[in-house]
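Q: Hi! Curious about what Transmembrane protein looks like structurally. Here's the sequence.
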Amino acid sequence: MNDAPHLLAEDRPDFERLLDEALRDDTLRTVLRAPGAPTPDDLRAHALTEADTVAAPAATEYQHYLRLRENLRTTPPAPALPGEPTAPALLTQLRSANGGAGLIPVLTVLTPILAWAAALVLLLLGYALRAADPDLALGHSLLTAGWLALAAGAAAMAVGIVGLILTALRDGSAPPVVPVPPGTDPELAAELDDARRDWQRALRERALVPHLTAAAAPPPLTPRQ
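A: Let's find out. The predicted structure is below.
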């Protein structure tokens, strides 16, 4: 396709991410195990060099995506109604409710600190009472509660660390969000997101996987004359 649009620099990260996914395709991995097949690194370098040619089968979806994106960038945002939060304010509210500095991350940080503070107080009181009267039952109870609080704080920190790691892995594997101008109509933003997903699906299924599979296939044997 000679009229295929040039892959813009801002879309190269999407292309590279989908290229890495395509290199893990089961069909391609089977072809790469054949004798004389190129390495995944060779295929990746070739695909990055010929990105425009490789992406040409998904040109229709890409052109539609580019048109929508350009229209959103050149269209002035609609004025907000009285009392209606603007896009930045709405995004801030959503982040506060669903992510960012929400309740769960705050509890993840505060729980170990509060547990260890309680453990310190209980242990100090327990050891002080036991020093004053070794047979006092309250001193033993405070020491037991203090060690339990100390263990609870350690467990809460371990759970928080695991949660942060899983969140980082999830956010790292998720595709980046397309930036849209503040005040953009949510329906237009959703249409842009759908167009981007359609292009990515076509790029992977109709462009990357077939191209990489054909490039990895060994050349046909030439019959002897």
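A: A fun detail: The CA atoms of residues 5 and 63 lie 7 Å apart.
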